[in-house]
Amino acid sequence: MDPIDRRITAFIKKHHVFTLATSHENRPYTCSCFYVYLEPLNLFVFTSEHNTRHIRELNEQPQVSGVVALETLIIGRIQGIQFTGRCRELHAEEYKTAHKAYIAKFPVVVFNQLYLWGIEPDFIKMTHNQLGFGKKLIWQKGPV
């Protein structure tokens, strides 16, 4: 597997909110989530209660997509990523690692019960206009 371009991971780690897209019976749904990115595991980590619509939907259809975007009106500064991947609830050692990182980034949740979920991306496309108008950096897990 090719490593993810450092410009992509740097962008992901610099931000903290993604838009998550799920679907159920061919009906799409989106929500925004705070996240932390665990680069060694290539894992987006977020917290959500089990009874939310997006968690109910991803439990039935774990393949999801998401977006992290930089808000700017300056065309030459536009950056953002679109990704797809499989989402699952985190447990055991993976949960401990994710919990520590999530608390470090968002200390306000330290006393809350956290249900942590991870998305392991299988595709990431970054639009990076600072490299040229419409420039795309693409990473894909496995053969293209």
Reconstruct the topology from this structure.
Layout: H1 6-14, E1 17-24, E2 27-34, E3 36-38, E4 43-47, H2 53-60, E5 63-69, E6 79-89, H3 92-105, E7 116-128, E8 136-140
Number of helices: 3
Mean pLDDT over the full residue set: 93
The CATH topology annotation reads as: Pnp Oxidase, Chain A
Shape: globular
Low-pLDDT windows of residues: none
Commentary on this structure:
By secondary structure, the chain is an alpha+beta fold. It has a single domain (6-140), classed as Electron Transport, Fmn-binding Protein, Chain A (Pnp Oxidase, Chain A). Helix content is 22%, strand content 42%. The chain contains 3 helices and 8 strands; from the N terminus they run H-E-E-E-E-H-E-E-H-E-E. The protein has helices spanning 6-14, 53-60, 92-105; strands spanning 17-24, 27-34, 36-38, 43-47, 63-69, 79-89, 116-128, 136-140. Strands 1, 2, 3, 4, 5, 6, 7 and 8 form an 8-stranded antiparallel β-sheet that branches. Strand 1 and strand 2 form a beta hairpin. The chain is globular, with a radius of gyration of 15 Å. The termini are close together. The mean pLDDT is 93.
Notable features of this structure?
144 residues; alpha+beta; Pnp Oxidase, Chain A; globular
Summarize the entry for a quick read.
With 144 residues, the chain is an alpha+beta fold.
